[in-house]
Structure formats: structure tokens, C-alpha cells
Design brief:
Strand content: 15-25%
Order of helices and strands: HEHHHHEHHHHHEEEEEEEEEHEEHH
Distance between the termini: 83 Å
Number of strands: 13
Radius of gyration: 39 Å
Number of domains: 2
Number of helices: 13
Structural class: alpha+beta
Helix content: 40-55%
Strand order of the largest sheet: 3-4-5-11-10-6-7
Oligomer: single chain
Length: about 375
């Protein structure tokens, strides 16, 4: 619990090791969770709302630890939030590369050493933290581990045993007053050398700027390219769908109650009747399992219903001697015989909210060779 409190502490300080561990954990967990819940913006935004304060507070503590201006807090954290939102809403894997920019801004803070107000008595970090949150329980665990590491078995000689224990106590006292992090905080590390080289090298600064700008431009161009490709695929899909829906219809047969029959090239039955004005050309598609429920099947006054493949409306279609807006309900060739039998021997049917009488249908089917072969008496 104390460790969790220290993550949200505003008054304490974090050394470089702790700052690096927290930032790495936030970035890795954010990438893993958002990639696992792609398309679920609510979950990703909730995770972002949790991680942003943790990242902001550790940045603030690191700035205080290095005695740097707190204005440095805004740029890397705002970049992280903006990049995270782009990742969440664009839903593109290439967006994760943009995290490099905010990560490099945070990495600059790693190049600054800890600065203590009291030069004679350095800060005693516990798990890289120093502040008002009581972390002594973790310090005790650390010391116990050190005690086990430096434990010396006593010999049978009493005096030597006492002397050894005294030395052991001196070692333990030394480790109690010195943090393992303090040794690294007062040395010029690799990060500081890199920062100093960067400050004094305009060419290197320009090269890094060009690299970061190239990363952003590459992502932006890929984003535009993917959008155009998606639009092309969508338009192609619509064209293919329209082409598939407007199939060839052969062997027209006018039925007594103002509807007609056609055959598809694969011997599937198509029922046609005049349509009302509607805004949606595709009323039902079994391939997508979407559309009006009343168009999913043809129901007879008795017997089992038969499912439709598609029901669509074509405007200005020539049927017989007139030009009308027409419904076309297509059925599977596997159901052709059962459908013709039902049309021949049932009394009525309903489809898409329309009711039709089948009086005289048997005689009409019997006169057309293409349909008469399916009628069995």
C-alpha cells in the first residue's frame, strides 16, 4: 500500500533508477493493454487516465530530485497523452512508433543526477524514493537481505566469534546509513556524458530532430495511404455487392396475383413484385445477416417457411411493358423444388409484409416448361 502511495506522491523525489522503472512499466503496460483491447476506446481511455497521473508524478519527483525547472514537466507528458489518443482512435499499429518521441523527451531527465540540499548528508532512498511516504518496511527487507548476504558463521573459539560479530555489526551499520543508489548518483554517468555531448553538438541535435520528424511524417503518410486504401476497398466492395445483387434473370413467368417468377443462372427462384418508394436498396442479405426481419423468409398459409438469400429493390426496372421500382427476392437453388411445390399447392404467402394469393398458380406453373418439371402431383 505504501508503495502505491509513493507512486502518487507530490512531495517526494525519485532517483534515476526508480524513474526509469516507472516510465518503462507505464509505456510497456499501455502498449500491451491498448493492443489487446483495440477497438474498445472506453477501456483504453480508462487505462490512459490511470497511467497519466503516475507518469506525471514521477516526472515531477524526478525534476525535484535533479533540481530542474518544473516547466519541463509539460512537454513529455502532453506528448504521451496526445500520442496515446492517436493510438486509441486511429487503431493502427504504426501509431505506436510515435511513442518514441515522448519517450525520448522523458529520457532527457535520466541524464541529470540527483542533487541534495545537504551535501554532508545525502538522501537515503528506499527503492529509489525519498519523501513523506513511510517506506521503512521495504528498507527493512533490503537490510535483511544484506544481513543474510554478509552473515559469517561463528567458530568454536569464543573471542573470535565475538570479534566477527562486531565486524558484522559494523558492516551492517555501514549499509544502514548508505543507500546503494547513492553510489551511482554522485558519479558522472553515461547519460550525463551523452547530454553534454548533445548540448555542445549542433549537428547531432539536427540529426535527432530530423529522425523524429521523419518518424512523424512516415506515420502520417502511412495513415493517409491506409485511409485511401480503405476507401478504395469500401468502394470496390460496394461495386462488387451491387454487381452480385443485380444478377441475370431468365424465364419470366407472370403469376395471377401481381407477382412474377424468374430463374437465376444457377436455377434459383426469384420472386418479383412492384415496390413502394424506399431509401434502402438492399432490404435483406443472408450473407451479412442484416436487413428487415419480414424479408428473411417467405411464409405460406401452411407448411414450413423458406429463407431468402437477398431481397433488394431496383429502381426504374423494366418488367413486362412498364418501368417500375421492383422488389426481387432471391432464393437458393437448393430450395427451388420445394418453393415451386409450395407455390403450386399452398393457398397464399407473405414476404416483406406483402400478402399474395396463390389461386390459379398451379395452372400457371404447369404451362411453363422451366417450372412445370418441379411440380409433382
Amino acid at each position: 500500500m505504501q508503495l502505491l502511495k509513493s507512486l502518487f506522491c507530490l512531495q517526494g523525489v525519485d532517483n534515476r533508477t526508480r524513474f526509469f522503472a516507472i516510465c518503462s512499466a507505464v509505456y510497456v503496460l499501455f502498449i500491451m493493454i491498448t493492443s489487446a483491447f483495440t477497438g474498445k476506446a472506453f477501456i483504453s481511455i480508462t487505462i490512459l487516465a490511470l497511467f497519466t497521473p503516475i507518469l506525471t508524478f514521477t516526472s515531477l519527483r524526478r525534476l525535484k530530485d535533479a533540481k530542474l525547472n518544473k516547466k519541463w514537466l509539460f512537454l513529455p507528458n502532453l506528448l504521451f497523452v496526445l500520442t496515446a489518443l492517436i493510438i486509441i482512435f486511429s487503431e493502427r499499429n504504426s501509431s505506436y512508433y510515435l511513442l518514441i518521441i515522448s519517450a525520448l523527451c522523458l529520457a532527457v531527465l535520466l541524464t541529470y543526477p540527483s542533487v541534495s540540499n545537504n551535501k554532508t548528508e545525502p538522501l537515503h532512498y528506499v527503492l529509489g524514493y525519498f519523501g513523506p511516504v513511510d517506506m521503512t518496511e521495504y528498507q527493512q527487507v533490503t537490510h535483511q537481505g544484506k544481513q543474510a548476504k554478509y552473515r559469517i558463521e561463528p567458530t568454536l573459539v569464543g573471542d573470535k566469534s565475538i570479534n566477527l560479530n562486531s565486524n558484522e555489526q559494523a558492516v551492517l551499520r555501514t549499509h544502514k546509513t548508505t543507500s546503494p543508489y547513492d553510489k551511482n548518483e554522485h558519479k558522472i554517468g553515461l547519460g550525463e556524458i551523452i547530454r553534454l555531448k548533445l548540448v555542445n553538438n549542433r549537428t547531432l541535435q539536427l540529426a535527432i530532430g530530423i529522425i523524429l520528424f521523419s518518424v512523424f511524417i512516415s506515420w502520417f503518410m502511412e495513415y493517409l495511404s491506409n485511409n485511401e486504401q480503405s476507401q478504395t476497398i469500401t468502394e470496390s466492395g460496394k461495386l462488387i455487392e451491387i454487381t452480385q445483387n443485380i444478377i441475370e434473370r431468365k424465364h419470366p413467368l407472370a403469376m395471377p396475383d401481381n407477382f412474377s417468377l424468374f430463374l437465376s443462372p444457377h436455377q434459383g427462384i426469384i420472386i418479383n413484385w412492384q415496390a413502394d418508394e424506399v431509401s434502402t436498396p438492399l432490404l435483406w442479405s443472408q450473407y451479412k445477416a442484416q436487413g428487415e426481419e419480414s424479408c428473411q423468409q417467405i411464409s405460406f398459409n401452411k407448411g414450413n417457411p423458406i429463407r431468402t438469400l437477398t431481397v433488394q429493390i431496383e429502381k426504374n426496372t423494366t418488367v413486362g411493358s412498364g418501368i417500375y421500382n421492383n422488389y426481387f427476392a432471391s432464393f437458393s437453388p437448393l430450395d427451388s423444388k420445394a418453393l415451386i411445390q409450395a407455390l403450386a399447392f399452398r393457398g397464399s404467402f407473405s414476404l416483406c409484409g406483402y400478402d399474395f394469393s396463390l389461386k390459379g398458380s398451379q395452372a400457371a406453373l404447369g404451362k411453363h416448361k422451366q417450372y412445370a418439371d418441379w411440380v409433382e402431383y
